[in-house]
Here is the input.
Amino acid sequence: MMVSNWPTRFIKANGLCVYCIVGFVIPKGWRIYVYTREINYDPYLYPEPLTFNPWRWMDKSLETHQYFMLFGGGGRLCPGKDLGMAEISTFLHYFVTRYRCEEVGGDKIVKFPRVEAPNGLHMRIWGC
Ligand code: HEM
Here is the structure.
């Protein structure tokens, strides 16, 4: 079901204006967070999601289905999507083919609710 086809409407509840989408009531002023990481790790959409498998993207349908939300969707779809993917692909290609890296220091990566290194992630990088 496409998001744009979801039945949405504004309703009044207890005197407050709320937004109703597929039966879920969202009070006015609430912030909605789409947890794209959870979607990207869904084995139903991406078999063996934790396996490093860049070749999975050879199947172009994976980035055109409605759950590929890395770049948003609908009317707010990122206009820089193709440029962003070209830039990242170019960077990764040169990074893994011409450089080596290793973590230095004991900082840990936090993976929830989003990937980050609160104290910085120190890397040693050298050309090869
Ligand atoms: C990996 C790179 C990028 C990612 C992950 C990304 C992600 C996103 C996402 C998720 C949105 C939707 C935000 C929303 O729903 O409100 C968005 C919107 C947007 N992005 Fe990107 N983006 C990337 C690169 C770029 C680049 C390279 C450009 C421009 C050169 C760009 C320009 C924009 C603009 C102008 C919008 C607003 C579109 C609108 O609200 O109508 N983005 N981006």
Remarks:
- The chain has two helices and five strands.
- The longest strand covers residues 8-13.
- The longest helix spans residues 81-98.
- Helices lie at 36-40, 81-98.
